[in-house]
């Protein structure tokens, strides 16, 4: 349920209405914008009599939110959210460019790729330290040593770190060392992990699950937001379909769908979506053209010998050309890289 208040309602009146509603056992989430004052009601609203709320002279109207996600809902927050990662914004006019290898392999590897992608225009560094591999015999990542190497690359380049968390036990370490905590596709519905991340105030990059619907994905965002952490960036990374030519099927329609349903920023991962390095370029361009707020792209200096996902990694020179061309598309739609 959302309550829209009349323009000019004073803070005291807002507080009175909030208190009256919260006495009925639901939480009120206020959004005070230039044009609109919205009170979003979160929790069990079945005991709320909307006619009673409508009787208040400051209330413009009361609306029911049909969707099960509330805090992530655009109705609660009509303006698109801009997430601030130590001054680097995700969701505004500037497009977030996250780039780096699938996995951190060595100090030399991660720092040289970080330096290259930074020169090309990347503003975040990705690199997995804890890898969710399908096979237990495949490279599992350098783990805590990988985090240390990411910090060294950050020291050299200033690029904020984006890396995946696998276990709730590592949250304190990630809060300390990492700028954006990635929740991978395989953990999108690890609700205990989501709940714990909701208690932090770190930016969470929430990847869409392998077979998750858009509503299930937004409900996972809601888990984190319900705990109080509203710093969430969604990432479409391809979903399972009957098609086997590509690793997954990139659901580009998720971008306009999320923009309609939610205020959260959404970025695209064309690397995991396709599993083919030569498809990264055209799909990255399509993503920017349709309004994605950023891209996360796997870049490796030696894809043929990468310990993970070499087949979908582009070389730094290819990334450089891609960013040059993406700047033109961004400019054409009034955004910048
Ligand atoms: C990754 O980004 O390295 C990764 C494992 O992605 P996903 O969770 O989308 O498969
Ligand atoms: Mn990968």
From TrEMBL:
Enzyme class, broadest EC rank: transferase
Taxonomy, superkingdom: Bacteria
One function term, GO molecular function aspect: 3-deoxy-7-phosphoheptulonate synthase activity
Sequence intervals crossing the membrane: none
Domain DAHP synthetase I/KDSA: 89-321
E.C. no: 2.5.1.54
Pfam families (UniProt xref): DAHP_snth_FXD (PF18152), DAHP_synth_1 (PF00793)
DAHP synthase ferredoxin-like domain boundaries: 1-66
Key words, A-Z: Transferase
Name of the protein: 3-deoxy-7-phosphoheptulonate synthase
Gene from which the chain derives: aroF
